[in-house]
Write a structure and sequence with these properties.
Aspartate Aminotransferase, domain 1; alpha/beta; single chain; Aspartate Aminotransferase, domain 2; binds pyridoxal-5'-phosphate
């Protein structure tokens, strides 16, 4: 029996109110919220399925692959991928993008060993397990960046095998960036002849190209693939990601002749057709100048937040280029209220586009009220 429509409406109203209220204290997770996608509303009346390869239209016509191709071109340009050897697709998120990079790297070098730092995202050990690959974890410095001496030493133990290295461009807790030039140097010193470097830029890859001085992480710097999240800095309201990789590498995992009419080159067969449309729309709205300004605004707000926390006597620091403010974890009550990701006694505030100075001031007032009474708790 269908549900009573009044009960359904009531439930949805309540859920919406809850979401709207929680949005006012959303400062602890890296998702931009300054978006307006109203113009795309009519497309939600249709199924859009980008099945298979973005560069081969399927037999059905309700897809957004032509928009997806423009999204790929935008990010391939941003990450300086070779014009005659580039490919990519819009994924379901950072984890799928990372899985794709490792999958292709393994096809390229079946005997390779994977290296990632202890500050890298938890999706890497999961993906490595799925792909049944061998790996070593490399030490991360206390500020979150990879320890390249430890990378050199670790890789040197397996120097006869190709090395697949994950460089994190914006670690989850401190927004540290691994340096692809330093990674290449460590591999060379270790005596490794064949390597594949994946830059996991889920958090900071989308805005790193706009910041000075240039940070080495893209194709021109020596990366073989670069990934970002769509729902973080770009501000797509649905989980999504982008993977950019050399087309010649993609060719190793391609299967054609499937009944869909497209080529089977992606992890998922059926793929979300709405997220490429939203990413395309965000690119039209902001362009390079707009994305750069949003990043600079976030950095300015992060600097303000750090200074204010220190002013009220709270332990806080940040990397000079970062939107992330690392702070001693406040009380469990504040962690819950302000939705702060917290690990080993540290929390972070992320000044993504959409976080306002007013919201930060409210947060600082909460922290300041708490300072004189108790010490930070270790969660
Ligand atoms: C550096 C990094 N890599 C990968 C991911 C995984 O992304 P997703 O949750 O979209 O799968 C994240 C998510 O926070 C991340 O910060």
């Amino acid at each position: 029996m269908p549900s009573d429509p009044r009960t359904v409406s009531k439930r949805l109203d309540y859920y919406l109110q809850q979401i709207q209220a929680d949005a006012r204290t959303f400062i602890g997770f890296p998702a931009a919220t300054d978006f307006i996608y109203d113009e795309l509303r009519p497309f939600f009346g249709y199924l859009l399925n980008n099945i298979g390869d973005p560069y081969k239209a399927p037999l059905h016509t309700n897809h957004s692959k032509y928009f997806e191709q423009e999204v790929i071109t935008f990010f391939a340009d941003l990450f300086r991928a070779p014009v005659d050897d580039r490919w990519g697709y819009v994924t379901n998120g950072g984890t799928e993008s990372n899985l794709y990079a490792l999958y292709v790297a393994r096809e390229l070098y079946p005997t390779a060993r994977v290296y990632y730092s202890s500050a890298a995202h938890y999706s890497h050990p999961k993906n490595i397990h799925l792909l049944n690959m061998e790996y070593s974890t490399v030490r991360a410095r206390t500020d979150g960046e990879m320890d390249y001496t430890d990378l050199r030493r670790t890789v040197a133990q397996y120097k006869d095998r190709p090395a697949i290295v994950v460089a994190t461009i914006g670690t989850t807790m401190t927004e540290a960036r691994d340096n692809v030039t330093s990674i290449k140097k460590a591999l060379q010193q270790a005596g490794v002849a064949r390597s594949f470097i994946h830059s996991d830029g889920a958090l900071a890859g989308a805005y790193a190209p706009y910041l000075e001085p240039h940070w080495p992480f893209d194709f021109a710097d020596g990366a073989d693939s670069v990934s970002i999240s769509g729902h973080k800095f770009i501000g797509c309201p649905m989980a999504s990601g982008v993977i950019i990789i050399r087309k010649s590498h993609r060719d190793r995992v391609m299967r054609s002749g499937v009944y869909t009419g497209s080529w089977d080159t992606t992890i998922s067969g059926s793929r979300n057709g709405h997220t490429p449309l939203m990413l395309w729309y965000a690119i039209q709205r902001w362009g390079n100048a707009g994305f750069k300004q949003r990043a600079l605004d976030g950095i300015r707000l992060a600097a303000y937040t750090t200074a204010k926390l220190q002013e009220v006597g709270w332990k806080a620091w940040r990397h000079p280029y970062a939107l992330t403010v690392v702070m001693a974890a406040p009380s469990a009550q504040l962690v819950t209220k302000w939705q702060l990701a917290t690990h080993e006694g540290w929390s972070h505030v992320i000044c993504m586009p959409g976080v306002t100075k007013e919201r930060i001031d409210d947060f600082i007032a909460d922290v300041a009220a708490y300072v004189p009474h108790t010490k930070p708790v270790r969660l």
